[in-house]
Each structure stands twice: as C-alpha cells, then as structure tokens.
Amino acid sequence: MRTRFLIIRFLLAWLGCFSLASLMHSQFVLAGLTGQGIQIALTDRLQMSLSDWWGLLPTYGLIIAIGLLLAFSIAGWLSRRFSINAVFLYPLAGFVTLLCIHLAMQPIMDITLIAGARGALGLLTQAATGLAGGWIFAKFRNLRQA
User: Fold this and answer.
1) Which residue from 94, 144, 133 is spatially nearest to 13, judged by alpha carbons?
2) pLDDT, tens digit, for every residue of 31-73?
C-alpha cells in the first residue's frame, strides 16, 4: 500500500510539474508572437497549449519524470538522514532539477529546446514548475501522515 501511494504521489507531482512547464512554454512563445503584433485568439491559445502538452509529453515529459525521480529520491534520503523538513526539501529539489535540465540542454544539444525557457524569466518560470511539482509531492506526503 505504501509503494502504491508513493507512486500515485509521484505521478501527481510529475503531472502537475510537466503540465505547468508545458503551459508556461506555450504562453511564453505566444507572448513573443503577440509582442510582434500577431493577434492570437483564445481558442488558438488553448489549442496550441493542448498541442504542445501532447507533443512534449514523450520527450520533455520523460526528461522531467527522470529528473524528478532522481531529485525526490535524493531529497527523501536527505530528509530522513538529516531530519530536514520535506515540505522545504522536495520543492527545492524540483526547482533545482528543472533548472539543471534546462542549463544542461544548451551545452549538450547546443540549443534550448523549450523556447519558453530561452530568456531569464522563462528559465526561472520553468524552474518554478519544478518547485510546484515538489510542493505537490510534499503536500500529499503530509496529507497521508495526517
């Protein structure tokens, strides 16, 4: 039962993180187009966001899942070993993970694949989605203990 609950917590955290990351990517790209004077209808914004979510799922979604799995495993170990508050540690681990994913893509692939992360604000926003994923993971941990 504990393992199943851990898997559900992880999947919820990953889904929240990936969905926010994909949505933020889409909105940063759309903001760039709008900044160039292109009018984009709400329905087109929604369609692009959904298409990006689905299109990024097998690649960016997998990268995020692997990163969060490693980060949350290390954060859990640190939390138990040094009695660090998990509510603080998991969001920090998620933030650092998403930041590292994006910082590593540039030198490895010589391109920032997530266009919404090409600027400082976009990069920070993508990292913040990791923070949200970590918060979700930690929050459901606390709900089970209550």
Assistant:
1) 133
2) 999 999 999 999 999 999 999 999 999 999 999 999 999 999 9
| Residue 126 contacts residue 10 (beta carbons within 8 Å) | no
**64-91 mean pLDDT:** 94
- Report DSSP state, residue 118: S
- Comparing CA positions, the residue from 49, 68, 45, 59 lying closest to residue 135 is 68
Amino acid at 96: V
Best CA proximity match to 4, nearest among 140, 136, 146: 140
How far is residue 54's CA from residue 50's CA, in Å, rounded to a whole number?
6
CA-CA distances (angstroms) from residue 103 to 26, 82, 107, 109, 119?
Answer: 19, 28, 8, 11, 12
> Residue 142 above 60 pLDDT?
no
As a whole number of angstroms, the distance between CA 129 and CA 144 comes to: 23
**23 CB-contact burial (10 Å; exposed 0-12 / middle 13-18 / buried 19+):** middle
Any idea where the domains of the chain sit in the sequence?
2-145
Res 80 pLDDT > 50: yes
